[in-house]
Amino acid sequence: MTNDIDTFESARVPHAPAEALRGRDVLSIADFSAAELRTILRRAHALKLERRSGVPHRILEGRTLAMIFEKPSLRTRCTFETGMTQFGGHAIDLAQEHMQMGTRESVPDVARNLDRWVDVIMARVYSHRTVVELAAHAKVPVINGLSDFSHPCQILADLQTIEERLGRLTSLKIAYVGDGNNVTNSLIFAAGVLGLDLHVGAPEGFQPDAAVLGRARALASRSDGEIVVHTNPADAVDMADVVYTDSWVSMGQEGESGSRLKVFPPYQVNAALMARARPEAIVMHCLPAHRGLEITDEVMDGPQSVVFDQAENRLHAQKALLALVLGA
Ligand code: CP
Ligand code: NVA
């Protein structure tokens, strides 16, 4: 890995001042300007380089993150907690079975308690409305750790990964194949804000939400981005530089798995589909992967796969967010 931050496009293009991000909630990628996203990515690259070279950065000593999980997690839980540890701060995992947000205590009251004790809140929720409600009532920043609508932390780590591997985000064809879900929505917003060329291949009935596409395309008309939806996955992947997929059945949709598993097999990312992409294309998955469904072992374990870089970069990208929203 490079030691030169200027290798990354996000270090060379215009930035917002760090101060612009202080105190901000992180609910959706669309809440940020291109310059603000570049500031976050540049900080993520810098923090990763510092960590690699052993430079300590205990910049959140005495600060506490509260983590709310309504759904399971490996990466989000470990990376937020590890990030706070590396910053010299502390993270509290508020298990939903104990806190019972929304039943034992209302969402606004949980927010109004937590902000008396902690400096920042991260929440993984079923309904996006819950994280919006937390943010509306908490006086400290609230970070969306995945909702049914979006997964902004994931996409920040993914953008960092693309830049590491390909040096840039623009002038690349990015393909997303599979279910038009929360991860897709955040990728679509990133394309709109940053001016990326994004091609989604998804079956009828599972394509991205029209309102998300409308908002992102309005942003893309100003950023020079392009967002195209295909029904044929090969059309999405044709000559792509990046091929991204995710689960066909997201958390909370388990009751639909029978019908979904009938529709999605033509959208599997396998060697035949990858043959349509550029030979040097990278393969991405936010994980957890369902091997043999949305992605084959051969592709996930093959030389084009960057899935564990994405997982690592959750740590660095979220540390950047924590540092910036807390003004450190
Ligand atoms: N990608 C991701 O958010 O992983 P977890 O569900 O394990 O947190
Ligand atoms: N779309 C998936 C992402 C998991 C990180 C889900 O919501 O379950």
Outline the structure in words:
The chain has 328 residues and is of the alpha/beta class. It has two domains: 5-151 and 314-325, Rossmann fold, CATH 3.40.50.1370; 154-310, Rossmann fold (3-Layer(aba) Sandwich). 42% of the residues lie in helices and 13% in strands. The chain has helices at 9-12, 34-52, 75-86, 96-99, 107-114, 128-137, 152-166, 182-194, 210-223, 233-237, 257-263, 271-274, 297-300, 307-325; strands at residues 64-69, 90-95, 120-124, 142-144, 173-177, 197-201, 226-230, 242-245, 282-285. The strands form two sheets. A five-stranded parallel beta sheet has the order 7-6-5-8-9. A four-stranded parallel beta sheet has the order 2-1-3-4, sandwiched between helices. The relative contact order is 0.15. The model has no long low-confidence stretch (mean pLDDT 97). It binds phosphoric acid mono(formamide)ester and norvaline (NVA). The site of phosphoric acid mono(formamide)ester (CP) has 9 residues, from helix 3.
Main attributes of the structure:
alpha/beta, Rossmann fold, 2 domains, five-stranded parallel β-sheet, four-stranded parallel β-sheet, 14 helices, 9 strands, binds norvaline
